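Lecture notes, part 5. Sequence design as translation. It can be helpful to think of inverse folding as translation between two languages: the language of shapes and the language of residues. The source text, in structure tokens, appears below.
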């Protein structure tokens, strides 16, 4: 989508009226993002809660939160939003604006939650887009297979399944979370176990 044949800018994106939809800007083109489903919401919340709690408990110098937009390219402009992100204080060399984006400030860590039906190649490409922008660690959580793939800026990847402990080195040394805690859904009933969910 363009306005009168011209590419949009990050300022144009910010000035859009709130129509209840989610958008990203990719090289000046406006891209509508589908609303997340309930499972997407749950998984994002669980990962975010565990990362945020670790940051708070260890008094680490990070901002963190969901739907973190990053202004990663200029002329034409690209503004992408991770499902969850962690940004170190020292990435900001100027005051943080009350509204808008800071060009070139990207997260240290991003989380992308992948709903069933989303192509694995597209998910990998999105992780690589973040790494190319300067992100150090991209976590891609696949709901359908209950697996998290960690992509690092040194080119390595690591898969964490339901029996594994998720780690986030080198961004969060010491962080560990059972993957099963992220992907086990619903209240447990007598006689049921994790494999029932």
């Amino acid at each position: 989508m363009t306005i009168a044949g011209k590419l949009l800018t990050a300022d144009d994106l910010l000035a859009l009226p709130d129509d209840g939809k989610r958008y990203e800007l990719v090289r000046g083109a406006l891209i509508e993002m589908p609303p997340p489903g309930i499972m997407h919401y749950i998984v994002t919340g669980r990962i975010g809660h565990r990362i945020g709690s670790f940051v708070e408990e260890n008094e680490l110098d990070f901002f963190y939160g969901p739907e973190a937009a990053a202004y990663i390219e200029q002329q034409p402009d690209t503004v992408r939003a991770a499902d969850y992100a962690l940004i170190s204080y020292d990435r900001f060399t100027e005051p943080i604006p009350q509204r808008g984006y800071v060009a070139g400030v990207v997260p240290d860590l991003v989380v992308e939650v992948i709903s069933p039906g989303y192509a694995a190649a597209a998910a990998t490409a999105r992780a690589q887009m973040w790494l190319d922008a300067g992100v150090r660690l991209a976590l891609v959580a696949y709901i359908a297979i209950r697996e998290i793939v960690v992509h690092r800026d040194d080119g390595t990847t690591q898969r964490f399944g339901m029996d594994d402990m998720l780690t986030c080195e080198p961004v969060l040394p010491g962080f560990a979370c059972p993957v099963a805690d992220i992907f086990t859904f619903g209240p447990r009933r007598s006689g049921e176990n994790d494999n029932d969910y």
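The translated text above is only one of many valid answers, since several sequences can fold into similar shapes. Residues 188-197 have pLDDT under 50 and may be disordered.
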